[in-house]
Predict the structure.
Amino acid sequence: MAEERTGREYRMEELAEAAGITVRTLRFYRERKLIPPPRREGRIAWYDEHHLARLHTISALLERGHTLSGIADLATAFESGRDVGQLLGLAATEPPAWTEEEPVRLTPEQLADYFEGEVTAENLAAALDLGYLATDGDDIIHISRRLLDVSAALVRQGVPLASVLAAGHQVRKHTEALTELFSALVHDHLPDEGFAGAMERVRPLAKDVVEAELSMSLDRRIRAEKSGPDAE
């Protein structure tokens, strides 16, 4: 029985056009094993969304100064299933004890599965600039599993990933301002406890305040929309 396939597939020329590169460049990437082999049907080579996501990842990394040699090593690690940290000679590290966020290692294929059809060079560049995606040598890591899952959930709800990232940029500005506010409270009123220790103690209280205020703000907005002139 033939294997059932889902998702769009591309011929070489179509894939190159979708990725914004030339067919010659695509052939070069394939020869350097920067992308997985295509599925073959007779003499026709078929590529899929995972290949497109890999090409967008390559473009984003090249824009940030990564070499093709380094990207090729990363691609080899992805394909062989080896730990990328081991490939780069990096010791396994745990997140600092004071952080609540869990970083996530992702291959381009896994990233494509999270954001089907939304993994573009522009979105990857925006995520790198925002700090959602970080590089550890040639490794790609999402800095927060919670943010990754929430971003993917918003995309599944129909919000474009570009808009999610733009909103994340605005949220970052507001949360930095809130951090400064609570930092000032600690400096002004808890000067003898040591800043780091006092902030760790105040942290859950600050989060509760922000969550409650956001919840009430959303309540007010929903109530206003429901009671507006066009409300049924």
In short: Residues 80-93 have pLDDT under 50 and may be disordered. The two ends are 54 Å apart (CA to CA). The first strand starts at residue 9 and ends at 10.
